[in-house]
Design brief:
This protein is of the alpha/beta class and 324 residues long. The protein has 15 helices and 13 strands. The strands form three sheets. Strands 8, 9, 10, 11, 12 and 13 form a six-stranded mixed sheet that branches. Strands 5-4-3-6-7 form a five-stranded parallel sheet, with helices on both faces. A two-stranded antiparallel sheet has the order 1-2. Helix 8 crosses helix 10. The longest helix is centred in the first third of the chain and has 33 residues.
Length: 324
Amino acid sequence: MKKFIFAMLALLFVLGGCAEKGKSGQTNSNQSETNEKIEITHALGTETFDKVPERIVVLEWNFAEELLALGVQPVGMADIEGFNKWVKISESIADDVVDVGTRQEPNLEEIAKLNPDVIITLSSNHGAIQDQLTKIAPTIFYDTVSPEVTKDLYQNTFDSFKTTAKLLGKEAEAEQLIQRLDEKYAEAAKKIDELNLPTREFLFTQAYTVNQAPTFRLFTKNSMVSHVLEKVGLENVIKDNTDAPWGFIDANVEGVSNYEDALFIHAVQQDDPLFDNLQNNKAWNELAFVKNEQLYDIGGDTWTFGGVLSMETLVDNLLRALQK
Protein backbone atom coordinates (compact mmCIF):
# COMPACT_ATOMS: atom_id res chain seq x y z
CA MET A 1 0.00 0.00 0.00
CA LYS A 2 2.80 2.35 0.89
CA LYS A 3 4.48 1.53 -2.40
CA PHE A 4 1.23 2.33 -4.22
CA ILE A 5 0.86 5.70 -2.44
CA PHE A 6 4.48 6.53 -3.12
CA ALA A 7 4.04 5.68 -6.80
CA MET A 8 0.94 7.89 -7.04
CA LEU A 9 2.73 10.81 -5.40
CA ALA A 10 5.63 10.37 -7.75
CA LEU A 11 3.24 10.32 -10.70
CA LEU A 12 1.53 13.53 -9.51
CA PHE A 13 4.90 15.18 -9.10
CA VAL A 14 5.89 14.24 -12.64
CA LEU A 15 2.56 15.43 -14.04
CA GLY A 16 2.85 18.67 -12.11
CA GLY A 17 6.33 19.13 -13.46
CA CYS A 18 5.06 18.55 -17.00
CA ALA A 19 2.38 21.16 -16.46
CA GLU A 20 4.97 23.66 -15.32
CA LYS A 21 7.13 22.82 -18.27
CA GLY A 22 4.13 23.42 -20.49
CA LYS A 23 3.70 26.93 -19.09
CA SER A 24 7.40 27.63 -19.39
CA GLY A 25 7.42 26.18 -22.88
CA GLN A 26 4.75 28.66 -23.93
CA THR A 27 6.93 31.52 -22.71
CA ASN A 28 9.97 30.03 -24.37
CA SER A 29 7.97 29.61 -27.57
CA ASN A 30 7.14 33.31 -27.51
CA GLN A 31 10.75 34.12 -26.81
CA SER A 32 11.78 31.82 -29.63
CA GLU A 33 9.51 33.73 -31.98
CA THR A 34 11.00 36.98 -30.76
CA ASN A 35 14.51 35.64 -31.10
CA GLU A 36 14.10 34.50 -34.69
CA LYS A 37 16.40 36.30 -37.10
CA ILE A 38 14.97 39.58 -38.34
CA GLU A 39 15.69 40.40 -41.98
CA ILE A 40 15.24 44.00 -43.06
CA THR A 41 15.44 44.97 -46.72
CA HIS A 42 16.13 48.66 -47.25
CA ALA A 43 17.15 51.11 -49.98
CA LEU A 44 20.82 50.08 -50.01
CA GLY A 45 20.69 46.40 -49.16
CA THR A 46 19.60 43.92 -46.51
CA GLU A 47 20.48 43.62 -42.82
CA THR A 48 19.87 40.58 -40.64
CA PHE A 49 19.59 40.76 -36.85
CA ASP A 50 19.79 37.86 -34.41
CA LYS A 51 17.55 39.70 -31.96
CA VAL A 52 15.58 42.90 -31.57
CA PRO A 53 18.02 45.84 -31.46
CA GLU A 54 17.99 47.79 -28.22
CA ARG A 55 20.54 50.55 -28.78
CA ILE A 56 19.33 52.58 -31.75
CA VAL A 57 20.77 55.73 -33.32
CA VAL A 58 18.57 57.76 -35.68
CA LEU A 59 19.90 60.43 -38.00
CA GLU A 60 16.55 61.77 -39.24
CA TRP A 61 13.62 63.19 -37.26
CA ASN A 62 10.90 61.11 -38.89
CA PHE A 63 12.58 57.87 -37.80
CA ALA A 64 12.97 59.19 -34.27
CA GLU A 65 9.23 59.80 -34.37
CA GLU A 66 8.64 56.22 -35.50
CA LEU A 67 10.57 54.93 -32.49
CA LEU A 68 8.67 57.18 -30.09
CA ALA A 69 5.34 56.09 -31.55
CA LEU A 70 6.31 52.49 -30.79
CA GLY A 71 7.38 53.32 -27.25
CA VAL A 72 11.13 53.19 -27.87
CA GLN A 73 13.73 55.87 -27.10
CA PRO A 74 16.87 56.07 -29.26
CA VAL A 75 20.24 56.18 -27.51
CA GLY A 76 21.42 58.79 -29.99
CA MET A 77 19.80 61.20 -32.42
CA ALA A 78 20.81 63.96 -34.81
CA ASP A 79 19.75 67.57 -34.07
CA ILE A 80 17.57 67.12 -31.01
CA GLU A 81 17.19 70.88 -30.60
CA GLY A 82 15.76 71.23 -34.10
CA PHE A 83 13.40 68.32 -33.52
CA ASN A 84 12.02 69.94 -30.38
CA LYS A 85 11.48 73.20 -32.28
CA TRP A 86 9.87 71.85 -35.43
CA VAL A 87 8.13 68.65 -34.38
CA LYS A 88 5.11 68.75 -32.07
CA ILE A 89 3.87 65.26 -31.24
CA SER A 90 2.39 63.48 -28.24
CA GLU A 91 5.71 61.84 -27.27
CA SER A 92 9.03 63.46 -26.28
CA ILE A 93 12.70 62.64 -26.66
CA ALA A 94 14.14 61.63 -23.28
CA ASP A 95 16.66 63.92 -21.62
CA ASP A 96 19.40 61.28 -21.69
CA VAL A 97 19.31 60.76 -25.48
CA VAL A 98 22.68 61.84 -26.88
CA ASP A 99 22.83 64.42 -29.67
CA VAL A 100 25.10 63.10 -32.44
CA GLY A 101 25.49 66.24 -34.54
CA THR A 102 23.49 67.60 -37.44
CA ARG A 103 21.38 65.61 -39.86
CA GLN A 104 23.61 66.84 -42.67
CA GLU A 105 26.90 65.98 -40.93
CA PRO A 106 26.42 63.48 -38.09
CA ASN A 107 29.32 63.01 -35.69
CA LEU A 108 30.59 59.50 -36.44
CA GLU A 109 32.84 59.45 -33.39
CA GLU A 110 29.92 60.21 -31.07
CA ILE A 111 27.81 57.57 -32.78
CA ALA A 112 30.55 54.96 -32.30
CA LYS A 113 30.85 55.82 -28.60
CA LEU A 114 27.20 54.81 -28.13
CA ASN A 115 27.92 51.28 -29.37
CA PRO A 116 24.59 51.07 -31.25
CA ASP A 117 22.94 47.85 -32.37
CA VAL A 118 21.56 49.63 -35.44
CA ILE A 119 21.60 53.04 -37.16
CA ILE A 120 18.54 54.28 -39.06
CA THR A 121 18.76 57.04 -41.65
CA LEU A 122 18.00 58.20 -45.21
CA SER A 123 19.83 56.93 -48.28
CA SER A 124 19.61 60.38 -49.88
CA ASN A 125 21.38 62.07 -46.96
CA HIS A 126 23.89 59.48 -45.82
CA GLY A 127 24.27 56.92 -48.57
CA ALA A 128 27.64 58.48 -49.37
CA ILE A 129 28.96 57.47 -45.93
CA GLN A 130 27.41 54.01 -45.93
CA ASP A 131 30.78 52.29 -45.46
CA GLN A 132 31.64 54.48 -42.46
CA LEU A 133 28.26 53.94 -40.82
CA THR A 134 28.17 50.19 -41.35
CA LYS A 135 31.59 49.87 -39.75
CA ILE A 136 29.98 51.21 -36.59
CA ALA A 137 26.74 49.19 -36.75
CA PRO A 138 24.28 47.65 -39.21
CA THR A 139 22.58 50.58 -40.91
CA ILE A 140 19.10 50.79 -42.41
CA PHE A 141 18.72 53.34 -45.19
CA TYR A 142 15.20 54.43 -46.06
CA ASP A 143 14.30 55.98 -49.42
CA THR A 144 12.21 59.15 -49.81
CA VAL A 145 13.45 60.50 -53.14
CA SER A 146 13.31 57.80 -55.82
CA PRO A 147 10.68 58.29 -58.55
CA GLU A 148 8.72 55.27 -57.31
CA VAL A 149 8.58 56.56 -53.73
CA THR A 150 7.93 60.17 -54.74
CA LYS A 151 4.65 59.21 -56.40
CA ASP A 152 3.11 58.56 -52.98
CA LEU A 153 5.13 59.88 -50.05
CA TYR A 154 2.20 59.21 -47.73
CA GLN A 155 2.26 55.47 -48.42
CA ASN A 156 6.04 55.45 -48.16
CA THR A 157 5.74 56.85 -44.65
CA PHE A 158 3.67 53.84 -43.62
CA ASP A 159 6.00 51.45 -45.41
CA SER A 160 9.00 52.66 -43.42
CA PHE A 161 6.96 52.70 -40.20
CA LYS A 162 5.97 49.06 -40.67
CA THR A 163 9.58 48.13 -41.44
CA THR A 164 10.77 49.83 -38.25
CA ALA A 165 8.00 48.03 -36.35
CA LYS A 166 9.18 44.71 -37.78
CA LEU A 167 12.73 45.51 -36.67
CA LEU A 168 11.51 46.19 -33.13
CA GLY A 169 9.05 43.30 -32.93
CA LYS A 170 6.18 45.78 -32.60
CA GLU A 171 4.13 45.14 -35.72
CA ALA A 172 0.86 44.79 -33.78
CA GLU A 173 1.47 48.13 -32.05
CA ALA A 174 2.08 49.79 -35.42
CA GLU A 175 -1.20 48.46 -36.81
CA GLN A 176 -3.06 49.77 -33.75
CA LEU A 177 -1.59 53.24 -34.28
CA ILE A 178 -2.58 53.21 -37.95
CA GLN A 179 -6.12 52.18 -37.00
CA ARG A 180 -6.25 54.97 -34.41
CA LEU A 181 -5.23 57.45 -37.09
CA ASP A 182 -7.97 56.22 -39.45
CA GLU A 183 -10.51 56.71 -36.66
CA LYS A 184 -9.23 60.26 -36.14
CA TYR A 185 -9.67 60.95 -39.86
CA ALA A 186 -13.28 59.80 -39.72
CA GLU A 187 -14.07 61.93 -36.67
CA ALA A 188 -12.39 64.99 -38.17
CA ALA A 189 -14.23 64.57 -41.47
CA LYS A 190 -17.56 64.65 -39.63
CA LYS A 191 -16.60 67.83 -37.80
CA ILE A 192 -15.42 69.51 -41.00
CA ASP A 193 -18.71 68.59 -42.68
CA GLU A 194 -20.46 70.61 -39.98
CA LEU A 195 -18.37 73.74 -40.67
CA ASN A 196 -19.60 76.37 -43.05
CA LEU A 197 -16.35 76.64 -44.98
CA PRO A 198 -16.32 79.02 -47.97
CA THR A 199 -14.61 76.28 -50.02
CA ARG A 200 -13.19 72.80 -49.58
CA GLU A 201 -10.13 73.59 -51.70
CA PHE A 202 -6.95 74.30 -49.77
CA LEU A 203 -3.44 75.58 -50.35
CA PHE A 204 -1.08 74.27 -47.69
CA THR A 205 2.27 75.94 -47.13
CA GLN A 206 5.20 75.70 -44.80
CA ALA A 207 6.51 79.23 -45.16
CA TYR A 208 9.59 81.07 -43.95
CA THR A 209 11.73 84.14 -44.61
CA VAL A 210 14.97 84.17 -46.60
CA ASN A 211 16.83 87.51 -46.76
CA GLN A 212 13.63 89.33 -45.75
CA ALA A 213 11.78 87.72 -48.67
CA PRO A 214 8.86 85.30 -48.12
CA THR A 215 9.33 81.76 -49.36
CA PHE A 216 6.39 79.37 -49.59
CA ARG A 217 6.64 75.61 -49.78
CA LEU A 218 3.40 74.63 -51.48
CA PHE A 219 2.50 71.00 -50.81
CA THR A 220 1.47 68.91 -53.79
CA LYS A 221 -0.92 65.95 -54.00
CA ASN A 222 1.83 63.36 -53.52
CA SER A 223 2.81 64.78 -50.11
CA MET A 224 1.93 63.39 -46.71
CA VAL A 225 0.17 66.65 -45.86
CA SER A 226 -2.08 66.60 -48.90
CA HIS A 227 -3.16 63.00 -48.29
CA VAL A 228 -4.04 63.76 -44.68
CA LEU A 229 -6.10 66.84 -45.52
CA GLU A 230 -7.91 65.04 -48.31
CA LYS A 231 -8.75 62.15 -45.98
CA VAL A 232 -10.65 64.58 -43.75
CA GLY A 233 -12.67 65.97 -46.68
CA LEU A 234 -10.64 68.82 -48.17
CA GLU A 235 -9.22 69.06 -51.69
CA ASN A 236 -5.77 70.24 -52.75
CA VAL A 237 -6.06 73.13 -55.16
CA ILE A 238 -2.71 72.17 -56.74
CA LYS A 239 -3.63 69.57 -59.34
CA ASP A 240 -0.32 69.20 -61.17
CA ASN A 241 3.23 68.52 -59.91
CA THR A 242 2.06 65.14 -58.63
CA ASP A 243 5.63 63.87 -58.57
CA ALA A 244 7.27 66.89 -56.93
CA PRO A 245 10.39 65.87 -54.93
CA TRP A 246 9.67 65.89 -51.17
CA GLY A 247 6.03 66.70 -52.00
CA PHE A 248 6.25 70.46 -52.46
CA ILE A 249 7.16 73.23 -54.87
CA ASP A 250 8.69 76.58 -53.92
CA ALA A 251 6.86 79.81 -54.67
CA ASN A 252 6.89 83.54 -53.97
CA VAL A 253 3.86 85.80 -53.53
CA GLU A 254 3.24 85.83 -57.27
CA GLY A 255 3.23 82.02 -57.34
CA VAL A 256 0.84 81.85 -54.41
CA SER A 257 -1.57 84.19 -56.23
CA ASN A 258 -2.41 81.36 -58.65
CA TYR A 259 -4.38 79.74 -55.82
CA GLU A 260 -5.92 82.77 -54.09
CA ASP A 261 -9.46 81.38 -53.99
CA ALA A 262 -8.48 78.44 -51.78
CA LEU A 263 -8.20 78.19 -48.00
CA PHE A 264 -4.67 79.29 -47.12
CA ILE A 265 -3.44 76.85 -44.47
CA HIS A 266 0.02 77.61 -43.16
CA ALA A 267 2.73 76.41 -40.80
CA VAL A 268 5.07 79.29 -39.91
CA GLN A 269 7.44 79.48 -36.96
CA GLN A 270 6.43 82.08 -34.36
CA ASP A 271 9.81 83.81 -34.51
CA ASP A 272 9.74 84.15 -38.31
CA PRO A 273 8.96 87.72 -39.52
CA LEU A 274 7.17 86.49 -42.66
CA PHE A 275 3.77 88.04 -41.98
CA ASP A 276 5.30 91.23 -40.59
CA ASN A 277 7.20 91.62 -43.85
CA LEU A 278 4.02 91.03 -45.85
CA GLN A 279 1.96 93.71 -44.11
CA ASN A 280 2.90 96.38 -46.65
CA ASN A 281 3.11 94.06 -49.64
CA LYS A 282 0.40 95.30 -52.03
CA ALA A 283 0.29 92.10 -54.10
CA TRP A 284 -0.16 90.00 -50.97
CA ASN A 285 -2.89 92.21 -49.53
CA GLU A 286 -4.87 91.97 -52.78
CA LEU A 287 -5.09 88.17 -52.65
CA ALA A 288 -8.62 86.85 -52.12
CA PHE A 289 -7.76 84.65 -49.14
CA VAL A 290 -6.11 87.64 -47.43
CA LYS A 291 -9.00 90.02 -48.05
CA ASN A 292 -11.56 87.37 -47.06
CA GLU A 293 -9.59 86.32 -43.97
CA GLN A 294 -9.26 82.72 -45.13
CA LEU A 295 -5.83 82.25 -43.54
CA TYR A 296 -5.55 79.34 -41.11
CA ASP A 297 -2.56 78.95 -38.80
CA ILE A 298 -1.84 75.36 -37.74
CA GLY A 299 1.43 76.17 -35.96
CA GLY A 300 5.03 76.21 -37.05
CA ASP A 301 5.79 73.02 -35.11
CA THR A 302 3.34 70.95 -37.15
CA TRP A 303 5.89 68.71 -38.83
CA THR A 304 5.02 68.15 -42.47
CA PHE A 305 7.38 65.22 -43.10
CA GLY A 306 6.65 63.05 -40.08
CA GLY A 307 4.78 59.84 -39.31
CA VAL A 308 1.56 58.80 -37.61
CA LEU A 309 2.04 61.06 -34.58
CA SER A 310 2.72 64.11 -36.77
CA MET A 311 -0.37 63.22 -38.80
CA GLU A 312 -2.44 63.21 -35.62
CA THR A 313 -1.03 66.63 -34.70
CA LEU A 314 -1.80 67.88 -38.19
CA VAL A 315 -5.44 66.79 -37.94
CA ASP A 316 -5.88 68.27 -34.44
CA ASN A 317 -4.28 71.59 -35.38
CA LEU A 318 -6.22 71.76 -38.63
CA LEU A 319 -9.52 71.36 -36.82
CA ARG A 320 -8.62 74.00 -34.28
CA ALA A 321 -7.64 76.43 -37.04
CA LEU A 322 -10.75 75.82 -39.16
CA GLN A 323 -13.01 76.22 -36.15
CA LYS A 324 -11.59 79.61 -35.23
